[in-house]
Amino acid sequence: MAACALRRGLLSGVSKYSRKHYHRILSVTDINISFEVYKPRLQCRACGLLGGVPQKRFMSSRNRPEGKILEPVGVFEAVKQHGKYETGQLFLHSVFGYRGIVLFPWHARLYDRDITPPVSDSKPEPPGAHGSKEVKGKTHTYYQVLIDTRDCPHISQRSQTEAVTFLANHDDSRALYAIPGLDYVSHEDILPYNSAEQVPIQHELFERFLMYNPAKSPPFTPRDTLKAWQEKNHPWLELSDVHRETTENIRVTVIPFYMGMREAQNSHVYWWRYCIRLENLGSEVVQLRERHWRIFSLSGTLETVRGRGVVGREPVLSKEQPAFQYSSHVSLQAPSGHMWGTFRIERTDGSHFDVRIPPFSLESNKDDKAPPAGYTF
Questions:
Q1: I need a surface site. Which of 182, 198, 222, 269 has the fewest CB within 10 A?
Q2: 278 with 251: CB under 8 angstroms?
């Protein structure tokens, strides 16, 4: 299956090649050269999939998995330096390597603490947060996307494929459910391509949300069900603020999402999910060992949370696999609050250092009437 190729061929290329190299690779589309992924025929020792004996080279000989044959999947398009990608745009994720398709864009405010802004354009720190740097918010484009389900098993160790969660619409105030294969992708993580296939992405919502229209570019246009689902779930899907900070070559990006309010034991409980990506921008192999959170509620409480790893894992960040992404949840008995903290990172020599998690706000929506629709169309 093509997923084997993405992990063995494309994914290693994503990790080992810089953005500069990628632009050079993409430039071959000027002469209409198609990119290719590996479709297995015999056994692949690394991932247990089936591969074939004939071999072809992709990107470079050192990235070539043995026992693979290359078959065309599509043609790379030029990366958009300006403007946004449209609904129906096929892409490869430049960090995690999966195939996906754009559903619709979000315009978020990016607060990058690695950039020192003028004081007048800055956002203040929450009470008790580390440091006193103020951060300017800059508009940045993200996309709601579907992930090809064939690739999910091969990215699940580095990125959760069920990270977009909703509060269940019933009396259990703690019940959550997820829509598998739904993700948020930054504009710079999109590597666009086109395909002659009418169903190039395998996902149960693909044909419910999109239809093939060869007269359009891209040739996949939104159905009314997608528009209705987006409108109904807008408060629970909306991405508004993104926070980023780098410590000793480890960049942490946080995206909070408001999920809604539920009543529990005669009080209101407000829920948020937050998505975190850790990226190793250096060459040194490191491992996340511990997390340390501080959670401040508008009600006046300050909670401290410490623990091993994140979501039950202690991911290794290396040059070959530099990123790890996960989602988690937090609830408060107040309509707003703040979170900040650190990750304890271990080097190969056993020494440690703390990586800062940028402070971010937990804000509830003013209109909290309609429950999440989820799969309701």
A1: 198
A2: yes
